[in-house]
């Protein structure tokens, strides 16, 4: 019989297709959250294949799957679910609360919290979004153990102080290294105003995915000579797998000062200063003559004028935030585009910030082996500034003015005849405008040689360009010409080229190795220019070219480079024994010829005891890990030319020349910090976890200017001498209190202790004295050093002080004296907190969400260096705080306020009279929101609509009676307040829209 092979092949083909079809099933399913609401955009994958589907607006999906297959369902923020394929599938997802699987960014790579042997604190976008603050750092306060974040004062652009595990230096840089998507950021303060600006105010919180703070040497040593103060790694958002998403957020808020002080009104002012004049000069004539001048023709005897100068310095603030983002991803391409606008009208008169930002993040899988991408961002921040705290024309110094003085004249112009310069003359006739433009960008490529080995190359760029324009009209106080204009321009730019290999391999199911090795080159350039012109025809001319004479100008250029090699190896055995080592070798042009290069190693180990057989089956203990690390880091923030022998220009009679300005030190190098960390992580019932760390870091080779003999031609030389030691404990507790379909409640609590002590100083441990502070061996760094106030003599109203002279037995003589000069200074307080804590609670119930954070600090003191003017029993005519009404008046009076004596100097010297504890607890932020049910949104084509009310600095509990326990003077000094503005209390209403 003849066989028709064509027919046979056709028959077999149809048979095979039918058989294959019979082995596949069409799966129809629905994906919902724990409350039963549909989840659109969830990803459904047939395990082991590339077959994928996505849920629609109602959570439904359809997918073809082989019989017996497993479906993997994923959605951001939810636990991954695996279910068997069946004709009908319903998947109920739960929130992902497994913090052990949290991904930590550790520099040139990532790790999971479970396998980490480092001390890394992390916050995500959920922790910082919808908090109405202008700066990223402000949103982090109270959320990170071991990290103290303080804004200098309440000005919108105010400088930020960030301390990771206490100070690691006295005279070099103290701020951490900031790394944005692998780019070490320029954070130089370029303000000519006298008060610092915050360079990171150019970043918008809406574009940030997470922030990881590397606190110990094991994590930060990969950044070598720049890691001693900690490293803050900022990661921006990327597209998530699924259909494209569009998000729009808008909020508006109002602000006011957290606290205002009470000052004498007109009646109290006349009463106190009349009495002070009689006590100090013998009659009331001195006071009355001054009252006549201050009143400027008004009837002060009948209190015609009662000016509230503090009220003019503050204003109601307003905030507007708007941002949008478009994001998405498929198997090959991820994209994220975002833009944001912020306008913050500050609580200080004429202080305002306006910022626009834009970001593009995109990556593409070119082939199975090669991928590439680009991150690019731009921001422009325009700031209307006021003068620094030490300037007479800064708004808050207006509180020194007499309430008898009219604030403005009848024609509306500022009163020019006040006790001190009327700051409103500056507000009306000048401006200080700062514009910060920032561009950051990175292009990168990644090539996989084999699945376990890849090579990454990144080229990054960071430009911070800043201009400042200061116009002063002819009516500005202290103006000696017909107007003056100052204009400056500075460009800071950094180029970073990084190349590194990453090897990640598991052998025999028990041995896992992750290794990174590479090089990095960093080139920084700075160019600065300024010019001043004077003599303007009238106040309508407000730029340099309007002046008749350009009378000043300066300019300079500088640069530095870093050339680095780095490597890191992590090893785990059986998922329970963990080892890690890293090393970085840095070379920099900043250091002396004999010390151009330094090597920074670190080692760490961990033991996951809960994986051992004797604990693995525990129904109570869900996780237990012991860990320890040691490493060395550097602090390279010593300036570009500290090691060089320098000469500068000098001129005389129109002849130019050179003068010797600085002695060189070819051995000068970075400050070195050795750090030890011991800790454990423990979890119970998958609901409670505790992280504990003990740390000790010793910084050797502190940079100081050491005196030289006059015969050398220079007065000082920079040397690496001195030792500083910081130590403390950190606890972080996370709990899931309730986790049901309707209600979820979680709590996070952190507490940190810190002691920073000076161990060695130059010149045979000679004390280093500041105006109010001291650095002394075995004392806390920059401790307060003051004469000790002893109250008031009840017999005569004299201010008293403790002698504190050293007696023969070594004790201090606590005899009191009214002779200020006879008393000795003693160490009497710490400008830095010794205990810090943060408590965050988050609750979700049937579409409602509620969260709040409390922050607390204890152990720090503040010295009010303005107290010698504003709280000294009417020693001069500055307006006084109301507590000065409690002055001594009659023999036998018991009070802490001396007798009022005009010009008497009764207790006006610097002393502990003006030193106070700054302990506080603050409701840092609170947010209450409601999300519309997803079933309501389906017909609108939206995935989420949420309205919320958010607040910052709502409540403060403190015994400190100054403006604020966190406010500090912004021109100089450590731990001082000097007419320093409190932070803003802000309440904002907003809406989130997602499509």
TrEMBL record:
GO biological process entries: siderophore transmembrane transport
Keywords in alphabetical order: Cell outer membrane, Membrane, Receptor, Signal, TonB box, Transmembrane, Transmembrane beta strand, Transport
PROSITE patterns in the record: TONB_DEPENDENT_REC_3 (PS52016)
Pfam families in alphabetical order: CarbopepD_reg_2 (PF13715), Plug (PF07715), TonB_dep_Rec_b-barrel (PF00593)
Gene3D superfamilies attached to this UniProt entry: Carboxypeptidase-like, regulatory domain (2.60.40.1120), TonB-dependent receptor, beta-barrel domain (2.40.170.20), TonB-dependent receptor, plug domain (2.170.130.10)
Membrane topology: Multi-pass membrane protein
Domain TonB-dependent receptor-like beta-barrel: 394-755
Keyword Membrane appears in the UniProt entry: yes
Family membership noted in the UniProt record: Belongs to the TonB-dependent receptor family.
Protein name in the entry: TonB-dependent receptor
Organism encoding this protein: Flavobacterium nackdongense
Lineage: Bacteria, Pseudomonadati, Bacteroidota, Flavobacteriia, Flavobacteriales
């Amino acid at each position: 019989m003849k066989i028709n092979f064509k027919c046979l092949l056709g028959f077999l083909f149809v048979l095979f297709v039918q058989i294959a079809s019979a082995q596949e099933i069409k799966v129809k399913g629905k994906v919902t959250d724990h409350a039963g609401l549909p989840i659109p955009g969830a990803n459904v994958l047939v395990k082991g294949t590339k077959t994928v589907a996505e849920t629609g607006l109602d959570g439904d999906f359809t997918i073809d799957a082989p019989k017996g297959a497993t479906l993997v369902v994923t959605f951001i923020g939810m636990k991954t679910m695996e279910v068997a394929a069946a004709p009908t599938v319903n998947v109920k997802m739960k929130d992902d609360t497994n913090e052990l699987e949290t991904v930590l960014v550790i520099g040139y790579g990532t790790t999971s919290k479970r396998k980490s042997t480092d001390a890394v604190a992390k916050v995500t976008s959920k922790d910082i979004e919808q908090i109405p603050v202008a700066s990223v750092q402000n949103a982090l306060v109270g959320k990170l153990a071991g990290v103290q974040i303080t804004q200098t004062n309440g000005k919108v652009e105010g400088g930020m102080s960030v301390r990771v595990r206490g100070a690691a230096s006295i005279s070099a840089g103290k701020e951490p290294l900031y790394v944005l998507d692998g780019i070490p950021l320029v954070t130089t303060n370029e303000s000519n105003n006298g008060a610092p600006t915050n360079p990171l105010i150019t970043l918008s919180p809406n574009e940030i995915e997470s922030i990881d703070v590397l606190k110990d040497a094991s994590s930060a040593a990969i950044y070598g000579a720049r890691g001693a103060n900690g490293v803050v790694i900022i990661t921006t958002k990327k597209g998530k797998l699924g259909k494209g998403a569009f998000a729009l957020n808008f909020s508006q808020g109002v602000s006011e000062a957290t606290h205002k002080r009470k000052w004498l009104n007109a009646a109290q002012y006349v009463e106190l200063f009349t009495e002070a004049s009689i006590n100090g000069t013998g009659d009331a004539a001195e006071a009355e003559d001054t009252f006549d001048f201050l009143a400027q023709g008004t009837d002060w005897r009948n209190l015609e004028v009662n000016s509230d100068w503090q009220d003019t310095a503050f204003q109601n603030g307003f905030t507007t935030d708007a941002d949008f983002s478009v994001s998405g991803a498929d198997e090959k391409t991820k994209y994220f585009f975002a833009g944001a606008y912020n306008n913050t009208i500050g609580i200080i008169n004429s202080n305002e910030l306006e910022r626009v930002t834009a970001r593009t993040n995109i990556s593409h899988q070119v082939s199975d082996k090669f991928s590439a991408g680009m991150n690019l961002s731009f921001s422009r921040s325009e700031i209307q500034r006021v003068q620094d705290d030490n300037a007479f024309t800064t708004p808050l110094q207006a509180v020194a003015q007499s309430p008898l003085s009219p604030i403005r004249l009848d024609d509306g112009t500022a009163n020019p005849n006040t006790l001190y310069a009327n700051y409103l003359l500056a507000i009306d006739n000048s401006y200080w405008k700062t514009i910060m433009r920032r561009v950051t960008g990175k292009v990168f490529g990644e090539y996989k040689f084999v699945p376990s080995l890849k090579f990454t190359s990144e080229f990054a760029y960071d430009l911070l360009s800043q201009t400042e324009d200061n116009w002063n009209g002819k009516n500005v106080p202290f103006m000696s010409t017909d107007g003056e204009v100052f204009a400056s321009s500075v460009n800071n730019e950094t180029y970073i080229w990084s190349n590194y290999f990453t090897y990640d391999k598991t052998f025999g199911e028990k041995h896992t190795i992750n290794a990174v090795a590479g090089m990095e080159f960093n080139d920084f350039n700075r160019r600065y220019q300024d010019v001043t012109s004077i003599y303007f025809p009238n106040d309508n001319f407000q730029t340099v070219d309007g002046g008749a004479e350009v009378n000043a100008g300066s300019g300079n250029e500088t640069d530095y480079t870093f050339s680095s090699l780095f490597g890191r190896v992590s090893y785990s055995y059986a998922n329970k024994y963990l080892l890690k080592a890293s090393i970085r070798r840095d070379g920099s042009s900043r250091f002396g010829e004999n010390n151009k290069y330094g090597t920074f190693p670190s080692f760490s180990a961990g033991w996951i005891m809960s994986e051992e057989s004797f604990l693995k089956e525990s129904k109570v203990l869900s996780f237990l890990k012991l860990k320890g690390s040691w490493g060395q880091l550097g602090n390279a923030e010593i300036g570009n030319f500290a090691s060089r022998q320098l000469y500068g220009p000098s001129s005389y009679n129109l002849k130019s020349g050179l003068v010797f300005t600085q002695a060189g030190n070819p051995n000068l190098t970075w400050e070195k910090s050795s750090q030890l960390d011991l800790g454990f992580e423990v979890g119970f019932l998958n609901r409670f976890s505790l992280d504990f760390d003990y740390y000790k870091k010793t910084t050797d080779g502190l940079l100081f200017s050491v005196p030289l003999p006059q015969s050398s031609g220079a007065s000082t030389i920079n040397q690496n001498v001195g030792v500083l030691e910081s130590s403390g404990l950190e606890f972080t507790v996370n709990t899931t209190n309730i986790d049901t379909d309707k209600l979820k409640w979680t709590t996070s609590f952190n507490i940190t202790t810190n002691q920073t002590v000076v161990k060695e100083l130059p010149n045979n441990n000679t004390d280093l004295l500041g105006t109010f502070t001291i650095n002394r061996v075995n004392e806390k760094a920059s401790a307060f050093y003051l004469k000790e106030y002893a109250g008031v003599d009840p017999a005569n109203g004299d201010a008293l002080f403790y002698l504190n002279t050293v007696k023969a037995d070594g004790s201090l003589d606590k005899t009191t004296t009214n002779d200020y000069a006879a008393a000795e200074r003693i160490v009497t307080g710490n400008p830095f907190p010794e205990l810090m804590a943060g408590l965050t609670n988050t609750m979700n119930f049937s579409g409602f969400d509620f969260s709040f954070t409390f922050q607390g600090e204890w152990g720090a003191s503040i010295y009010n260096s303005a107290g010698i003017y504003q709280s000294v029993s009417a020693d001069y005519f500055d307006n006084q705080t109301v507590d000065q009404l409690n002055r001594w008046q009659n023999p036998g009076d018991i009070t802490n306020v001396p007798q009022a004596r005009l010009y008497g100097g009764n207790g006006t010297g610097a002393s502990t009279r003006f030193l106070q504890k700054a302990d506080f607890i603050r409701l840092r932020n609170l947010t209450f929101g409601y999300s519309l049910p997803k079933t309501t949104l389906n017909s609108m084509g939206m995935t989420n609509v949420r309205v919320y009310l958010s607040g910052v600095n709502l409540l403060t509990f403190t015994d400190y009676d100054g403006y604020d326990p966190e406010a500090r003077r912004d021109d100089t000094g450590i731990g001082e307040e000097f007419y320093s503005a409190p932070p803003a209390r802000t309440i904002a209403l907003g809406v989130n829209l997602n499509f």
